[in-house]
Write the structure tokens for this entry.
Amino acid sequence: GLQTFIGRWAANVAWCADPRGAERPIEITTTRFEGYENSCSIASIRQMADGYEAALTCAAEGQTANERVRLAVQGDSMRLTWLDRNDAVVALVRCPAPAAAAAPPPS
């Protein structure tokens, strides 16, 4: 279901540790798609044979833009396709959960 793509994703797992700057993870929730260059709300999402297709409404540098992306998750990797950017594909890996949020070991 939708839970498969919720979380933080990065092109390089080393970026997961630092959420600031250009090399930062993308954060995806059921309603938001937050990246370095754009902050988007997910206007609609539909299930496809190979994942999900989402329509994003993004604000970037004072402009509003509509983008379409396809999210295809397999395990801890995601293939992100920008449908309005000549089907540019970005391969992402799931960021590990922050250490602070980890459950304590069983006693």
Observations:
- The chain is about 0% helix and 50% strand.
